[in-house]
Write the structure tokens for this entry.
Amino acid sequence: MPTEAEWEYAAHSGGKPEKWAGTSSESSLGNYAWYSSNSRSQTHPVGQKQANGLGLYDMSGNVWEWCSDWYVKNYYGSSPKQNPQGPGSGSHRVLRGGSWYNASWFARTAARIRHSPGGRNSYLGFRVAFPARL
């Protein structure tokens, strides 16, 4: 799983100031994301919406994505600025991206929640990530 910092960089199309992955316009959000207004209350196969600027699908909406970081409410206020790896321990993990169940506000690239690591339901998922080869 990606770190929270890696997830956010990818969702922002490599660092662009996008409110949602792929767009900053709520009127075009439905082109990029499954969320409460268009999901018919269910998950959808990846790749049915437009990709963001890095070619990644469903970074906003569809399912909340687990990050490898432990959740600390204000961690980024005091974390290293370059590629923070997240806290060393905790009781909850970070989830990002919103889901089919949520309104557009939760699908924003800035939205984050916490969940116990053993949690399972139809609006949680994960993204496999691996280090880039140089």
The CA atoms of residues 98 and 107 lie 4 Å apart.
